Amino acid sequence: MGETISTWLFRAGRRSAREPLTRAALTSILVDEVRHQRLGWEASKALFPRLSPDERSVLQREASLALAAFEQQNARPALERLQRREPFDPKCAELGVLAPAERVDAFYVAVEKFVLPRLDALGLDGGRAWSERYR
Q1: CB-CB contact of 2 with 44 (8 Å)
Q2: Structural domain boundaries, residue 9
Q3: How many domains does the chain have?
Q4: Tens of pLDDT, residue by residue, the chain (135 residues)
Q5: What angle do CA 120, 131, 108 make, to 5 degrees?
């Protein structure tokens, strides 16, 4: 899940990056992140059928906890900056730094369009994992 979220955050940063070395570095990182996320989902797909019902239940709960941690780490600081109306220097975007609103958008797109459906495809309940993340 983390690699999938990272992929979308790096992709968004690379889109706005204008400095050539920064774009090259973000491209290289992005290629690596895509490989990692594919490997993680493929490994999960291969291993999930072997899990017992108890192990699947634990994994369902772990997915919720991980989603909460990812949200706290990736979206919350940006949301707090937006709430405080802190200015964002557009020159930072040229270096691949995401403006808070872009960071929030990229995070939630990654979760809603990619992570949750992949959890569902595995046999977990992505929507439930998301809705129970702070329970």
Answers
A1: no
A2: 2-131
A3: 1
A4: 999 999 999 999 999 999 999 999 999 999 999 999 999 999 999 999 999 999 999 999 999 999 999 999 999 999 999 999 999 999 999 999 999 999 999 999 999 999 999 999 999 999 999 999 999
A5: 75
